[in-house]
Amino acid sequence: MIQGWLGDDYLMLFDNQAEAMSFAARYEVTERLPGYALLGLRGWDDFILSDPEGGLHIVPTIPLVSDNITAYDLKTDLASMQPDPRFTDRIKWYVQPIVFGGDPSAEQNIIWISIDQHVDLVKWWNRKYDEIKG
Questions:
Q1: What pTM does this model have?
Q2: CA neighbor of 120 nearest in space, from 76, 62, 77
Q3: Which of 75, 95, 123, 128 has the greatest number of C-beta atoms within 10 Å?
């Protein structure tokens, strides 16, 4: 995984197609957003996706629904990414996600987790979202 700051965004990008496909399946992106490929994470809150034509998009990790997909412009050369050891292999997580009323500025609502924990929590909260939305 390639990680670091690109301008104001912290990016976590998958090294290769096999890693990306594995995480897409684990996160259930393949199932929830057919036709999109998972490229990585932007700012811990959004997935970076590509469509079949190669267009780039972002979508919140929760709720992971097609209505929330927006275009994403990644103009900057990825070689200019600046690693930051404070965040390597760590993801900021809202204990109560914003879509469920969590306060993004409340210190007690923020924890730092591993990518494996992130996978599990994203799936759990998306399933909870599905239950509520019916």
A1: 0.91
A2: 62
A3: 123
Per-residue pLDDT of the chain (134 residues; tens, 9 = 90+): 999 999 889 999 999 999 999 999 999 999 999 999 999 999 989 999 999 999 999 999 999 999 999 999 987 777 888 899 998 889 999 999 889 989 999 999 999 999 999 999 999 999 999 999 87
Preceding peptide of 60 cis, ω within 30°: no
In one letter, which amino acid is 9? D
Q: Which of 89, 63, 80 is nearest to 9 (CA)?
A: 80
Residue whose entry in the numeric block shows the structure tokens 């998306």: 126
How crowded is residue 16: how many other Cβ atoms within 10 Å of its Cβ? 9
